[in-house]
Amino acid sequence: MLSYLHAFHAGNFADVQKHGALTLALSMMQAKPSAIACFDTHAGSAIYDLKSDRARKTAEADLGVQKLWASRNSLSSGDWQSVLKVLSRFNAGEGALTVYPGSPAWFRQFLRPGDSLTAFELHPTESSQLAGWAADQNVRVMHEDGLKGLLRQLPPAQPRLMALIDPSYEIKSEYSDVAATLQKAWQKCRHGVYLVWYPVLTSGLQATLKQAVKDSPLRKVWCSEVHLKTPPERGMTGSGMLVVNPPWGFEDRFSAMIEDIAGESALGLSHEHGWLVPE
Ligand code: SAM
Questions:
Q1: Which parts of the sequence bind S-adenosyl-L-methionine (predicted)?
Q2: pLDDT tens digits, one per residue of 74-125
Q3: From the CA of 93, how far away is ligand 1's center (Å)?
Q4: I need a surface site. Which of 19, 87, 199, 274 has the fewest CB within 10 A?
C-alpha cells in the first residue's frame, strides 16, 4: 500500500538539493544541442501548494526552499539563478513562496523541442493529478512502477538520457531494487546521466543502496550528502544524491551551490561529497 504523499514534504531541504542537482545537470547537458530523453521514475503530483494543510502540518518548506528564497540576493553561485527563475515563474510577488514545483515541473521548464519527458507515478491519486497537469505540457505520464517502466523504455530514441530516480523508500527492499535497476539501466544506456535520491537515516538503511552500487559494475558515480546541523533524534537527518556520469565540472559547480546555502542563517547543512565509484 502506498501511503507516502510528497505534499507533506515538498520544498524541504532534500528537495532543494535534489531539484538544484536536476537543474544544474540538465542545463549542463543542454550545452550541447543533441536531444535528451528525460525520465522521472517517481514523479509525484507535479505542483504543490505550500499553503495547504498538508504542507503547513510539517512546515518543512520553511526550513528548505523558503530559506533559499529569503537568501536569494546573497547567493554567490550563479547556478542558483536558473533555480530562482523557475521558482519566480510559479510565484508572483516578492514575499514567501506559495507554490512549489515537483520534479516533472522542473524538468518541463527546461525541455527543448526534441527533448522528451516520461513521468511514472504509481499512487492512483497522485498519478491522476500528475496526468491532469501534464495534459497540456507535452509530458508522457505512465501510471505504473517507475523502475520497471524505466527499464522497458531504454535505450531511448534520443541520443542522450537523463533519469531521476526518487522513490519514497516506504519498502526496505527499495534500496536494493534501486541499485539493481540502476545497474540494468546503465547496461542498456551507459552514457546516461542518472540522478538517484536517497534519505540519510539514523537507521543507516541507505548503506544498502550505496554498498550495492559499489559492488556493481557501475563506474563514475559521484555522491553528495547534505546533513542537517541540527538533526532530529530519529528519522531523516540528511539527504543524498548519487549522480552517475555527471557532466564534466558538475561536482565543483554543485558543491559551490550547496556551500552557498549551507550556513546557519540559510539551510544549516554540512556537505560530504566525493566519488562513490570512480571512473
Ligand atoms: N520526484 C518527486 C519530486 O521531486 O517532486 C517526489 C517523489 S516522492 C519522493 C515519491 C513518489 O513515488 C510518490 O509520489 C509515490 O506515490 C511514488 N511511488 C511510490 N512507489 C512507486 C513506484 N513503484 N513507481 C512509481 N512511483 C512510485
A1: 19, 42, 103, 121, 145-146, 166
A2: 999 999 999 999 999 999 877 899 999 999 999 999 999 999 999 999 999 9
A3: 30
A4: 274
